[in-house]
Amino acid sequence: YLEKDYECLITVDILCHGVPSQKYLDSYLKDISKGKEIKSVNFRDKKMGWNCDNIVIKFTDNTEYIGRRAGNIPDAYVGAFKGDMMSRKVCYDCQYAVFPRQGDFTMGDLWNWEKLDPKSNDKKGTSFVFLNSKKGESVFDVIRQSAKYVNEIMVKDYNTIPNRVYAKRKEYPGRRRFINLMKRKPFSEAYSYVKKGIYDVGMLGYMNTPNIGSVLTYYALYHVLTDIGYEVLPIERPKD
Fold first, then answer.
1. Which of 11, 41, 112, 189 stands the most exposed, by the fewest C-beta atoms within 10 Å?
2. Pairing between strand 12-14 and 105-109?
């Protein structure tokens, strides 16, 4: 874009899991807040440890909501995000996730850090930095004096890195259904329907018959039921 390399420009790219639409977060917060005014939203609150899948929402009335992916009632947003239920279509084949990276540095969470140095866990998070260019190496030589780092390694096989450093990722099988449900149901309900395989109505019949009139009848019935607000599962009647 800049057409030449500027000496004063240092670029950093990050390892990314995927980016959902802002509309999903807005819908989720509206669902969780139940009309209360939100003061702050914090993903992966360090009070619970950096490796926790959690979200902490604080309200102006000094109450808070803590949601986790695990547990009896898993948080819908954390579950949908970590489960790849709502990533953008392009995220399933991201050409920027691969090597060679685009920035002078690449930064990300260091998963499996305990294999490098089990004693270094301060529960606040351990990151890794890839030095992708000569400029990146020279800059790191300056900041290493004041940085706490565990180890330096030469990566020979990128497939050994536990983070996402590959382009293609399998799309969640219920993603399209989740997106359609989001058009007419609250976020948590849409997530629960997809995650638990819930439907309101089973529509039994010959949906795949060569009779055009029959197909149109079922098509019309399906849309009438969904317009009312039901989640419909078409069930092909077994041949008897």
1. 112
2. parallel
The answer to whether 165 touches 15, Cβ cutoff 8 Å, is: yes
CA distance 36 to 29: 10
Q: How far apart (Å, rounded) are the C-alpha atoms in residues 38 and 61?
A: 9
Question: Residues, the chain, total?
Answer: 240
Question: Could you tell me if 218 and 191 are in contact, meaning their C-beta atoms sit under 8 angstroms apart?
Answer: no
Report whether 232 contacts 225 (CB < 8 A).
Answer: yes
Looking at the DSSP assignment, which residues form a beta bridge with residue 204? Answer: 235
Of 130, 199, 186, 124, the closest CA to residue 158 belongs to 130
- The residues with which 85 forms a beta bridge, in sequence order, are none
In this prediction the pTM is 0.81
